[in-house]
Write a structure and sequence with these properties.
Rossmann fold, 7-stranded parallel sheet, 36 helices, about 725 residues, 5 domains, alpha/beta, about 50% helix, Arc Repressor Mutant, subunit A, 6-stranded parallel sheet
Length: about 725
């Protein structure tokens, strides 16, 4: 070992306690210490942080680390301070600090105590900070998450594009840029923007051999996620959603179904975010439900699964987020739920943005669609996207497509037809237009370019558009066709495609997954799950009648028919499970449920029934603003007319809302209002009717019974009182 290498290994052991470097870390660190601009592309878990942390410890002066997230900076600083004797070794400089704290940071830098200063790009634009940094000794600049520089990156931040001019103002120092996800296009963009064209490039393999990749159709997604998590009990995992609202909903749904989960998104206050993140890191919570705000730089090695409730907006996002699983080399399961509806939603988000930005977003989304729908090895597809070739035989069945391969057929003739279409149309079109040429579909563009006169026009109409898109994907990944990224995905021939046209060889085609009928599949799934046990339902109705008689109540007071139907579907055998049933609150379950769950438990045992527990997904309580307002207003004894008027409802609609609240098992006290519209004898007469004479809670039957003595509204209000008093 050379003297330089010996020094590096000694420093590694001294500062971090490690005996060996990981991958090409040693070469990267040596490059930076030699004063060379350095560009590092390493997958998540590859040890990027050490590439600038160790040189910072070993160099004179302070290293400036540009980082995009305050939470990420805090994590890094906390981790570094754990290796050092004093907290002054590393600081953050961002908008979260007070004036006194900023002064303390600057004093520590002046004294030479601080080796790493983490800053947000916005903080660097302030003249006072630029002037201060010009006055002190700096060792180098590091740009973490450097893909934020590129418009082609998955997390573009405009302020990152100003870094080069800011660095020039501060003074000349070596630059190290680091990212976990960079296609060749993003890589070029970063280097050009930073003026790092001559930088030493260190690119590690993007293959995460321990991760299992799977894409599932988005059918009954919450139920499927709950089932999946319960199949991996007490394991750490992340569930990613695209919106803050969805994060809150999914986190609550997991919680009420017995899963130890917490939400994390930028809308939560800093303290709550920090508490939830720490709970996950300290294993006080097993599952974090998050937007992409969570995870950048989170060093938790034993995340065992990453679930995407919504498909991400780019393959870079998908790769980076899945990369948080199995960082210790152990199990890492990555499941994404896909529906084209999600893609359409993401497309809407780009409307109103500059045309160039919209085109880039569309191109990135198309790659995501292609990945989701492809039937080829998912690992091969991802690695090809990042410019790396991969033999799918080495996947070891660690993706759903390799685990359950679809049938292939010889596709030489189809590939020849595709290449001819690209050639004849003079390489002017993207995949969509090439497919339209092949199937003979007239569009405005085809008409403008007279493509209907090409010899290949319509020659592939014996196959549908989805099939031709599959052929294009597979031909592209095999290298027979290129995409011109600069022009947003025009298909181009290359040397390989020209050789194939001259001398065709075998090319096996696999049909892609078809997600076009997801809504129909979901509807069928819901219908299937709604088929209840008719024999049990009849027995439960008999039991209801029997129990009602002993309690001297009409049967409908105990449980409504929809509740009995749900019991005959879900087979609840405990009071807790009974509260999962439609229209059964905790009070009703405790009051009337004992005989029912015991009866169902015996029925299940006697008939050897396999209970569909994976179907029993408890919904979160509907806390809509209107329901809360009604309950609070009746508690305050506000006139019902005023409540209706405040919410723009007529009286009939307000009564319907109150009925829904009562039928779901919540008590609503409207006695104060009834006392205004009906005298005591009238109330008693209607109450006794529902208790003694009525066989059902039908208002039509009640109107007939009283033969016009009472208005429909009065009877409905008394039914609310009756059910509130006796059923809830």
């Amino acid at each position: 070992m050379s003297e330089t290498n010996q020094t590096l290994h000694t420093a590694l052991k001294k500062y971090f306690g490690f005996s060996n470097f990981k991958g090409n870390q040693e070469l990267v660190i040596q490059s930076l210490l030699n004063g060379q601009d350095t560009f590092v592309i390493k997958p998540t878990g590859g040890g990027k942080s050490l590439c600038y942390q160790l040189p910072a410890f070993m160099s004179e002066g302070t290293a400036i680390i540009v980082s995009p997230l305050i939470a990420l900076m805090k994590n890094q600083v906390d981790a570094i301070r754990g290796f050092a004797l004093t907290d002054s070794i590393a600081h953050v400089l961002n908008s979260s600090l007070t004036k006194r704290e900023i002064q303390k940071v600057k004093e520590d830098i002046k004294q030479g105590h601080t080796k790493l200063l983490y800053v947000a790009p916005e903080s660097l634009t302030k003249e006072e900070n630029i002037d201060f940094l010009k006055s002190v000794k700096l060792s180098f600049f590091a740009i973490d998450e450097a893909h934020c520089i590129s418009e082609w990156g998955h997390d573009f931040r405009p302020e990152y594009r100003n870094l080069r001019s800011i660095f020039q103002k501060i003074g000349k120092s070596p630059i190290i840029a680091l990212t976990a996800t960079a296609t060749e296009k993003v890589q070029e963009d970063i280097q050009k923007n930073l003026g790092m064209e001559n930088a030493q490039l260190y690119k590690s393999s993007f293959n995460r051999g321990n991760l299992f990749y799977e894409v599932r159709p988005k059918i009954n997604v919450n139920k499927e996620i709950i089932k999946f998590i319960k199949q991996h009990p007490n394991k750490s995992g992340i569930v990613y959603c695209l919106s803050r609202k969805k994060v809150e909903e999914v986190a609550q749904t997991l919680q009420v179904n017995g899963i130890n989960a917490l939400p994390y998104h930028a809308g939560l206050d800093v303290n709550t975010r920090g508490k939830h993140q720490d709970a996950f890191l300290m294993e006080d919570c097993h599952v974090i439900v998050a937007t992409i705000a969570f995870g950048m730089g989170i060093d938790k090695p034993d995340v065992r699964f990453v679930v995407h409730h919504d498909i991400p907006k780019s393959l870079e996002s998908y790769y980076q987020e899945t990369g948080r699983a199995g960082r210790d080399g152990g199990e890492g399961i990555c499941v994404a739920f896909y529906s084209y509806k999600d893609i359409e939603k993401l497309e809407k988000f780009t409307q109103g943005k500059p045309v160039a930005e919209q085109e880039i977003s569309k191109q990135l989304l198309l790659e995501t669609v292609s990945f989701a729908e492809t039937s080829m090895c998912r690992r091969k597809y991802i690695l090809h996207y990042f410019g790396e070739s991969f033999n799918e035989k080495l996947c070891n069945k660690l993706c759903d497509n390799c685990k359950n391969p679809k049938k292939q057929h010889e596709g030489t003739e189809d590939v020849l037809l595709l290449l001819s279409a690209i050639e004849e149309s003079k390489e002017k079109f993207k995949a969509k237009e090439i497919v339209n040429i092949l199937i003979g579909k007239m569009t405005a563009m085809i008409n403008d370019y007279n493509c209907n006169k090409l010899s290949v026009f319509g020659k592939g109409n014996n196959k549908d558009a989805a099939y031709w898109h599959a052929v294009i994907r597979q031909v592209f990944v095999s290298g027979l066709v290129s995409k011109d990224i600069e022009s947003y995905g025009l298909l181009k021939l290359n040397e390989d495609s020209k050789a194939f046209l001259a001398k065709p060889g075998s090319f096996m085609i696999t049909e892609d997954h078809d997600y076009s009928d997801i809504e129909q599949q979901e509807a069928q799934s819901n219908v299937k799950s709604a088929v209840f046990d008719t024999k049990l339902l009849a027995m439960l109705k008999d039991l209801r009648k029997k129990v009602a008689k002993t309690k001297n109540l009409p049967p409908f007071v105990l449980f409504q028919d929809p509740s009995l139907e749900d019991m005959a579907l879900q087979y609840p055998i405990t009071i807790e499970e009974l509260t999962n049933i439609n229209g059964v609150g905790t009070g009703k379950a405790n009051r009337f449920g004992k005989e029912f769950v015991e009866f169902i438990a015996n029925y299940v045992e006697e008939n050897n029934i396999d209970r569909p527990q994976d179907m029993v997904v408890k919904s979160i309580v509907n806390k809509s603003g209107l329901k809360v307002y009604i309950i609070q207003s009746t508690d305050r004894k506000l006139p019902l007319e005023d409540i209706a008027s405040a919410k723009g409802l007529d009286m009939a609609k307000l009564i319907t809302e109150i009925e829904n609240i009562v039928y779901s098992g919540t008590k609503v006290d409207i006695n104060y209002y009834l006392d205004e519209v009906l005298d005591e004898d009238q109330q008693e007469e209607i109450f006794d009717y529902f208790k003694e004479d009525a066989e059902t809670d039908s208002i039509e039957e009640a109107l007939g019974e009283f033969d016009g003595s009472y208005e429909e509204e009065e009877l409905r209000l008394m039914r609310i009182k009756f059910l509130s008093d006796l059923a809830n």
